[in-house]
Design brief:
The protein is mainly α. Helix content is 68%, strand content 0%. It comes from Pararge aegeria aegeria.
Length: 125
Amino acid sequence: MLARRFAQCTTQVKLALFRAYCQSFYTCSLWTHYTQRTYNALRVQYNNVLRAVLKKPRRCSASEMFADARVDDFYAIILRKRAASMMSRLVSSTNTLLSKLAFRMDSSLGGCWDGVHTRYRGVIS
């Protein structure tokens, strides 16, 4: 819909629309039980949307496309920014239980936090 409806717009407008409509992964910090296969399927769709919006060929490099457009890729949004945002909110929470849980790396929350960052370390770098 974005690619068709806004085909005549400038690249900057298209990128603003992409950021507004496609980078809102509400509650993605709670996606702790998703498999690598599920993340890959979402990442491919995310990449394909930007390709369609920017009228790039199917075989173009996704990394290069995101770098040229100065848009965060899927892993930067899902794994780094959203997870860090959630942890930041927990640490600064006025709820003492939540803030104490955030500092305990041996808790299930700490395990999920650590798992998210170690599982994709090679992919994110």
